[in-house]
Amino acid sequence: MADSRVVVIKNLSKRFDTLSVLENISLEVTRGENLIVFGRSGQGKSVLLKCIIGLMTLDSGEIFINGQNIGKLKINELNQVRKNIGFLFQSSALYDSMTVYENLSFPLKRHFPDMTLNEINDKVKYTLELVSLEEAINKMPAELSGGMKKRIGLARSIITDPELMLYDEPTTGLDPITTKEISELILSLQKKLNMTSIVVTHDLICAEIIADRAIFLKDAKIAYEGDIKQLTESNDSFLKNFFSHEILDIPNESQKV
Amino acid sequence: MKLPRLKQGKRLSTGEYIYNFFATISGLTIFNIEFFKQVFVPPYEISEIKKHMDELGVKTFGIVSVTGFIIGLVLAMQSQPVLARFGASDFLPGMVALSVVRELGPVITALIFAGRVSSGIGAELGSMRVTEQIDAMEVSAVNPFKYLVVTRIIATTMILPVLTIYVIIIALLGGYLAVIIVESMNFEYYRIAVINSVEFGDFIPGVAKTFVFGYIVGIVGSYKGFTAEGGTEGVGKASTTSVVVSSLLILIFDMILVKISLWLWPTLG
Fold first, then answer.
1. Residue A168 — φ and ψ, nearest 5°?
2. Of the partner residues B133, B138, B139, the one whose CB lies closest to the CB of residue A95
3. N or C: which end of chain A has fewer CB within 10 A?
4. pLDDT in tens, A194-239
5. B71/B106 Cα distance (integer angstroms)
6. pTM score of the predicted model
């Protein structure tokens, strides 16, 4: 029987000089699941994502993606694993010397050399339709608003149909309406493309829309784990304090895509 | 590839400056090794190399044209009275030609190229680094070193010799303008005097060393940009230190290469 666990993290620890950012983190994410990683700024949320994708090396512990220990892979093998992972950066990280079309076609041209130009064009147009930004195809990143950049960044991340999506604060810096739109878009794409997602955020609107399960990082450890309701309705004074400053407008179940 | 991190801060101690000096040398060495490890491995990114060569050529064409012309002109104007004092005005075309071909053309072009291109590469890659574009490339399973660094180094290495030959020709034309201003000499006489005074052995070492200078400009700019950190301030620092380090290395390697060329072609001396 196939293993339903897409990501398995065992005793992950990471420190910068004397500062311990992650300590003995163990975590599993199953296929099709949306996991939210909460935590205050500087609590190692982004570091966790960067360790998962192999941008940062681990001090100790192991990370398995689809059963492959990424710490033990050679760079070519790691790149094969990365082809199945999408990563949306907090800053969107669009290539600013390329147009939107070039940003989206770049991974296709690199990873699918057999694709014809027409197929690439069709795929780019289809993906832009998914994020409702067909008209931006010839624009440069500098001409886009923050929300549009996030959408294009999202489109670039999903254009290769990844199995696993990692989102690093996908709604930071956006107004509540755009935040809700982006979050709903993430959820709808996840349903359409049947992806597994790990979303780092401290935005409750986003979490409420997307989450199947949530963890809370505090003092380099997973301090709380459960579904989003358990965390937001917890009597724990720290969680109460954290979420009371965040709650704006939580959509009900019927609003979920 | 694990590169040493430089000490950051507004005010560094002497010890930290010394640490950064050796960390830069070791980082550049690692970068060089990585370049030679990756340059012969496909994909060769030919279209990127062509694009960079095109951009670099266009970017520097104007400034090297003006500089080359002025160098030739000023050199001839400054030298003429001295040569006239010794009754050696006839040697003026040859002196201008030899100075420009052997030393001034290659070194001045390389220094201008460093100022214009190394800083540009440092700023561009530095900006890509601090805005996570290099990380984005890496996570999408594209080798950023190969795509961004190797292509730029090949482009700078290939384009600088071409620019140098162009500057030499422009500087000789500038020299001719000075000659006709201060003395009556027809162009044919000047041309023949230049050709007779410059030998193959003068031309080859002069142009050959610009391959090394071009490589220095590319690798230093790329290294500084690739390792930039600390937001926009880091980008600015990457840009300026790229110029300083590459200019310094150009002059040091010029000294070494002149010594080597004199050893290989003793008749040059």
1. -100, 100
2. B133
3. N
4. 899 999 988 888 888 998 899 999 888 998 888 888 888 888 888 8
5. 12
6. 0.86
